[in-house]
Amino acid sequence: MPEPLRIGVIEGDGIGHEIVPATRRVVDAAIAATGGPELEWVPLPLGADAIGSHGTPVPRSTLEALTDLDGWILGPHDSASYPEPFRAALTPGGQIRKHFDLYANIRPARALPGTHAMVPDMDLVVVRENTEGFYADRNMAVGSGEFMPTPDVALAVGVITRAACERIAHTAFDLASRRRKRVTIVHKANVLSKTTGLFRDVCREIGTMYPSVDVDDEHVDAMAALLVRRGGDFDVIVTENLFGDILSDLAGELSGSLGSAPSINASARKTMAQAVHGAAPDIAGLGRANPTALVLSSAMLLDRLSVTGNPFLGGAARALERAVAETIGDGIATADLGGSASTSEFTAAVVDRITAA
Ligand code: ATP
Ligand code: MG
Question: Which residue in 158, 136, 172, 156 sits closest to 266, CA to CA?
Answer without folding.
Answer: 172
